[in-house]
Write a structure and sequence with these properties.
Layout: H1 2-5, H2 12-48, E1 55-64, E2 67-72, E3 78-81, E4 90-99, E5 104-109
Antiparallel strand pairs: 1-2, 1-4, 2-3, 4-5
Length: about 110
């Protein structure tokens, strides 16, 4: 960018490094997203750790092969639910378990 503004041809080593720079930046972005998801999962587990057995209201926000993803209203947690529920439907779920080691939350559908 600076070379362009200064109307100077960038050095060959800089131009040659551009493809690798793109790949490095893509890997860094993927890694950053993985770390961010792990941190959010860990916080969600900490928030729910002492609430196993409670029921919560939520909304189905995504579908997966093994069920759906539910956004709880309070606390604001996103977790998988092994059930076939249409996208956008409101649901009541019970917190069955929390595993801080695997950073996972287990929900079960409550009969409507």
């Amino acid at each position: 960018m600076l070379a362009h503004l200064a109307v100077v041809t960038p050095p060959a080593w800089a131009v040659d490094a551009l493809p690798e720079l793109v790949a490095t930046m893509e890997r860094a972005t993927r890694h950053q997203a993985e770390v961010e998801r792990a941190v959010v999962d860990a916080v969600e587990c900490a928030v729910l750790a002492n609430r196993v057995g409670e029921t919560f209201a939520g909304v189905v926000v995504d579908t997966r092969r093994a069920g759906v993803v539910v956004q709880l209203a309070r606390p604001a947690v996103v977790a998988p639910l092994p059930a076939a529920v249409p996208l956008g439907d409101e649901v009541r779920v019970r917190l069955v378990g929390v595993d801080p080691v695997t950073r996972s939350v287990e929900l079960a559908a409550v009969d409507r």
